[in-house]
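Quiz preparation item.
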């Protein structure tokens, strides 16, 4: 755990601080112990890692983007010959190794289906990496301008760091979107943290779409990225998580 969040006799910084303003990638997420994963909750929430020792307390910056990957179950859970013989119970047990409070701090969940030989033969997508990069850069510029106009104290000029007091002004869904979010919050039992994260993700989707306001379609996509229990998963496949 000290290697990840910091610690040791001399209270050295861990990987979360070394990844400050960068990306921390964790592969095979459920293979980490629950104690190690839950130690990430405070850095993910506060953007810093605090190490307490008998003679001193040390704070290291730890504002990073967490990206993690995992199989749906320990057996792999793929289709065909690789399919798990234990069925949904195996996936439920495996994914239960990750605590709910940790998952609540993850903004995006995405299931990636296996790549087939036919997929490899397909032509390159019309929108390549250069085009996506330009669209992301434009969205980041929009976010920086918006946060500057709000006059908040965001640590970074991105939607993820919109101050709580400025969220209502930065993200104002249309009537249809507000109704959808209200209904989804009840059905999905969103926490207050999850509710605000959906709003920030929807605002980012709208920025990437070049839209001034947050519409129902943006909130619907943001809600589709929230965590679903293993029993509700539509199709087995490798998963990717991002915060």
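Solution:
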């Amino acid at each position: 755990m000290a290697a990840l969040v910091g610690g040791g006799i001399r209270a050295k910084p861990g990987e979360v601080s070394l990844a400050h303003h960068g990306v921390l990638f964790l592969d095979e997420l459920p293979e980490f112990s629950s104690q190690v994963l839950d130690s990430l909750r405070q850095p993910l929430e506060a953007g810093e890692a605090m190490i307490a020792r008998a003679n001193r307390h040390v704070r290291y910056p730890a504002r990073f983007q967490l990206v993690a990957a995992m199989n749906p179950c320990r057996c792999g859970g793929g289709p065909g010959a690789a399919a798990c013989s234990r069925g949904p119970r195996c996936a439920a047990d495996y994914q239960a190794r990750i605590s709910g409070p940790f998952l609540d701090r993850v903004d995006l969940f995405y299931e990636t289906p296996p790549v087939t030989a036919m997929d490899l033969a397909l032509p390159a997508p019309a929108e390549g990496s250069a085009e996506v990069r330009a669209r992301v850069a434009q969205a980041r510029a929009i976010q920086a301008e918006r946060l500057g106009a709000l006059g908040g104290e965001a640590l970074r000029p991105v939607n993820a760091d919109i101050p709580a007091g400025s969220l209502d002004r930065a993200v104002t869904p249309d009537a249809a979107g507000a109704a959808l979010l209200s209904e989804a919050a009840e059905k999905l039992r969103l926490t207050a943290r999850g509710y605000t994260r959906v709003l920030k993700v929807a605002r980012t989707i709208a920025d990437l779409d070049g839209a001034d306001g947050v519409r129902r379609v943006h909130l619907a996509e943001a809600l589709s990225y929230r965590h679903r229990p293993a029993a509700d998963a539509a199709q087995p496949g490798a998963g990717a998580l991002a915060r």
